Model the fold of this input.
Amino acid sequence: MDFQDTPEEAAFRAEARAWIDANAPKHLEAELKRASFGSSGLTSEDPVAAGKAWQKKKAEAGWACLHWPKEYGGGARTPIERVIWNQEEGPYAVLSGAFTIGHGMCGPTVMAWADEEQSRKLLPPLASGEEIWCQLFSEPAGGSDLAGLRTRAVKADDGSGDWIVNGQKIWTSGAQISDWGLLITRTDPDVPKHKGLTMFFLSMDTPGVEVRPIKQANGASGFNEVYFTDVRIPDSQRLGDVGQGWKVSLTTLMNERLSIGSGMSTGFPELFRFCMEAEIEGKPAIEDSAVRTRLAQFAVKQSGLKYTGMRAITALSKGDTPGPENSIGKLVAGATMQELAMFALDIQGEAGVIWSEDSPQRGRFQAMLMRSPATRIEGGSDEILRNIIGERVLGLPGDIRVDKDVPFKDIPTRGGS
Amino acid sequence: MDFQDTPEEAAFRAEARAWIDANAPKHLEAELKRASFGSSGLTSEDPVAAGKAWQKKKAEAGWACLHWPKEYGGGARTPIERVIWNQEEGPYAVLSGAFTIGHGMCGPTVMAWADEEQSRKLLPPLASGEEIWCQLFSEPAGGSDLAGLRTRAVKADDGSGDWIVNGQKIWTSGAQISDWGLLITRTDPDVPKHKGLTMFFLSMDTPGVEVRPIKQANGASGFNEVYFTDVRIPDSQRLGDVGQGWKVSLTTLMNERLSIGSGMSTGFPELFRFCMEAEIEGKPAIEDSAVRTRLAQFAVKQSGLKYTGMRAITALSKGDTPGPENSIGKLVAGATMQELAMFALDIQGEAGVIWSEDSPQRGRFQAMLMRSPATRIEGGSDEILRNIIGERVLGLPGDIRVDKDVPFKDIPTRGGS
Amino acid sequence: MNLDFSDEQKQLRDQVRRFLSEKCPPAAVRKILEGSSAFDRDLYLGLAELGVLGAAIPEEYGGVGLGDLELCVIAEELGRVIAPVPVSSSIYLTAEFLLMSGSEAQKACWLPKLSSGEVIGTFAFNEGQGRMTPDKVQARVEGGKITGTKAPIADGSIADFAIVAARDEADGISLYLVKLDDDGVSRDALESIDPTRDQTRLTFDGCPAELLGGQGEGWHIASVVMDRAAILLAFEQLGGSDRAMEMARDYALERIAFGRQIGSFQAIKHMLADMYVSATLARSNCYYGAWALASGASERPVAAATARVSATTAFQQCSKNNIQVHGGMGFTWAFDCHLYYRRSNALALALGGLSTWESLLIERMSAGNTESAA
Amino acid sequence: MNLDFSDEQKQLRDQVRRFLSEKCPPAAVRKILEGSSAFDRDLYLGLAELGVLGAAIPEEYGGVGLGDLELCVIAEELGRVIAPVPVSSSIYLTAEFLLMSGSEAQKACWLPKLSSGEVIGTFAFNEGQGRMTPDKVQARVEGGKITGTKAPIADGSIADFAIVAARDEADGISLYLVKLDDDGVSRDALESIDPTRDQTRLTFDGCPAELLGGQGEGWHIASVVMDRAAILLAFEQLGGSDRAMEMARDYALERIAFGRQIGSFQAIKHMLADMYVSATLARSNCYYGAWALASGASERPVAAATARVSATTAFQQCSKNNIQVHGGMGFTWAFDCHLYYRRSNALALALGGLSTWESLLIERMSAGNTESAA
Done:
């Protein structure tokens, strides 16, 4: 039990800190600290351009993709070193938002399934931020049922071996700024649903690919729909065998779990600060016993997630593989943030309805209120996460599956009310 | 919208009040007011004997079984009159505890399924409290899955037409004081589970019937196990056709819902009184804002159940049949009472651990704490009630059933860990 | 004993529901959300014509002369369709202030116009952050002129006049009727979590203010009227809860995942059951509120807080879980789920937030109205 | 950075777990529940022999000389089996009081005997109903003799001596060491929700009382020691949470209803998932507490309250839902579910209930230890 750095870790931290101090775009720091809920906070510069510049600098000095091997442009650092880097990078980490999916999920999938030549071609520009990747998995009909996807890839009838893709993807973060996409398709609807899938990568410039932003409930547009109309993909851009797409996708999804940090935020630190300043009937809100009770329950969730993250890092540093138990982070953080936002607005009284720069903490709690429903859904809904914990952590039986051994085309697509 | 009696109702209330005033066993009133959680509160007299005496008095004056027809010993009163009677009977209603199941569930089932001669023989002594009935439905292997019962009835091989019953029932309230039992058995294990059941009634004196009390987690013993060893039942004591037992049992279970009153108690009135008296750091607990918040949430549950009960009575008085929407009473009351008890103990501080006559309200909150887990299970667990609301009130599809079209004997009985 | 609306009241409900389903589909709400104007004037005038605005206003003041129960029925329907109109400001509050405390002249002047929708009134109460307390009232009237800032004020951009709570010359709190077309009034529209209802900052710089009700009685009058309005808002929340629950139910029946209707999964089914429970408790508590409102029972303060706490809880729960049942689609701008989520969280704060009403409920119960606890 | 126990500490855990699984099966707990005696003396002496009681007591006082982290590991294991022994009274509290404030003579006299299990100590703090505050301390020492009543006192029937908080002659609060075999002591056993742990009323009628620690420092010393003990109790709660969750999980795998393992129903599966979440948060918060306990960090008061709030919540949730998963059988005396339910609710109140620790947590965070909030 020890929160101190080892001498080696302390040396690494000093090195990282010195380099960041000398190289980070300090003129952006104040803006970046305002980042919230999908917005980088940047207004004085284009966030993507600023992100690419920072990533390039990091790559040149060996600080990019610390978890990747050096031959692909990575830093080959230990898990603890990555954590230390993240702590030191602080607000500048927001600049890497556009690369999260490429570095965390697409890159490792390419590494695992592409041939060496492709990896050496595709990965270094991804590591250095020259190229951005997105993940084309979810579909309107899919939702939690990821394998229920309907985007079809069929062999071209011209003998070229190329594939022709038609269909629609949804919830694609960053599609509008991506150079490459990792695309899962259905190549055989006559077999059960997990068996007829095939994975490809493709340039987002390929003719027939159309990206349309989705306006979200909170007014932001972080996600996109991507339409495919007779999009031609050479067979050489296939990852894994035909029909092996589900297995390939699991590499991607498992890597999602590897991106552990210090636990997700519940919004508690902000609420605590707010309650130190706000008043209830003339006294500091923090002295109100109802506020204290709620705060205490939020506090132990925040700190529980924080130290769960540290326990995971400890395990990682001892060589353990992070498992499904890390599903608790988003499950707890999403629901807590939503409750917490409602509570913060309640303390603001009728003024809580106002969402402006003049609101407490520049309207952060209003933004949390409006963003948190998405947190409870994206990347695995609360219900899917509880299934994962129940089944994969606690070993309970799966749900009864009616779609398991049925040819995909025979699975119903619409209920009746 | 009106909480006042109509002139007819007021007249009925006056009549009931006058009769109760003249006839009730007033010397028991103080003790009966201490009733809690399965205990009648009576110590000076045998509760069953006292109950029988009161019931007999009521029957002689026409106040027994107000919802039954007169020919079976009932009072043939309207739903509103029953509610008024219940309000006026007050603490003396506790005396009728032993008859609840017989009057509310067994009697109506006999009425619906027995022939006229049997009804005229069986029902009047039940109405007048001379005889007590119990309901022999649940089994160890059954639980929420009521139709999964295994108690077997087979035709005697002596040509008498009698049935021979072997098996075990559980959670039988009042079995040790009952004269008659309503018994559901499996007569055909080769058909799907709901189809092979048959209902009987029998004297609890029948040879081979053995009653053993179950000690509960809270130390009380309100329930029993009942063992059947080669118990012989004449075919004339069959209710409904062979194989029709499930349908007969639904009559019983539907009648459970008819027993609506002013909503179940959550324990809120007691908690409110306690918070008026208790102190937190030298000030009345009721002035503490954390206490207020919790109390308010409990209060709206209590009052919500109370007025939901009144809405149901209003509907009943207009001729509507009470439906599955009444499932909310126990669902809300059980969970609320458990939370509320924990909260009351918390206010008591370390002294809350003590469960004695010297504890606040004679240990009522400790008793609630220890009894409430059963409330969340008995007569339909929280989970079953949510299924009922989801499916029968909101019209959502049933759970996927793996046991539906399978011969009963082929359904697995044990999982593996 | 009868805890239900009468057949006539149910007919009124059906009539209003039919009208609103035609005149106030989600597309109409979206128009306001997306900023075409601050409220739906056609809808508002249509409601006036239908007699909805004047339902509880006596005939002598141009109203229909029905009662409070009818207004409850109407409020529930307005809440179901989250109507983008200033009924709460102009009718539940302003008209009630006039009826309770207005002089004959004030009533005769304003009530017919409120009833016809010709003018809109609002209640300018809030100042600053947090729970309103008497010391927060800083707007001040001297020599018949009012000075001060009130925010946020619902429908402040569109109201023709406001009932304003302000310090009088004796430093007590009194209510004043202030016309908002005066040159001394500035109105700044505010961004809010629910743009389907206008929120505005009103600044008064020496505008004529006419006393409403007795001097120094402002806080008391406001408390009574806010209690009454709270019951009506609870009915709006109830309507919203029911609609959000129905949307979720319908989607759970229609949407297939893993080859099944998602409503067949207990996670979804039980979430819906809990929404139903919460909405049902709210309905029963609202009916209790309606009874207290209409009968003038001494329990009204307790009943108002009960209805309000219960309905706020229900609407927030139903609207957030409606999004959850819809999954990703529920979080798109294109689906209507967020309209209900926005409204539920805005209504939760109107006339004071949940914690305020929770505290009031217990304070009132402990002050003597304890019989309702039993 | 390393937030885990060392391999040696894990070996200790395994050793203690093996010992307890043999010596403290549920049947042993039931013996105490059903009144055969006030605690399991054989088990207690066995724990002493194993070095468990003296784990954190220095060798010079007859202990094993390990540290606080080892005691955390042990506490978790005792909690897992809800051991019916007075370790919390005698070790987490009494031994700590002596170590922190005892004179050399007091330490030399008592610590070896506590470590060997030869004597049992307890902390006599509580008076009356509700949260303990300094003004509730009414027991009084005059001329070296103590008079007053303390209840409920855990293990009061079986303790040989007690550390008693009482008014000193300057009306301050001081701690006194009082032998309980004195004629002036009466002990009345009290019925409790968890009969597997003794609760007693101690009445002192002029018994000899020996000052422990500085005069007037009683409240301060007690606060520090109770914080330390709270972390250890949180580990007991953590062990209990895990075991209750495992019992529920095992039953959900074994029990069939509707032809399926009940764990395949989402209602049960998700209930178990929520138990896991709660127990996991508690584990992480307990580790934070363990770090603060062992390192003497200034964050200890915050960490203690954090661990305690989290573990209390987890154990209550896991033990009540364990019964729910078991259905009717879970509510029988014969099944062990109620043993955990009882203990969880008793531990929730020990050293002050949830609301007390919630309030302390935020008070402490706002008093400056705010870095832990980030």
Observations:
- Chain B has a mean pLDDT of 92.
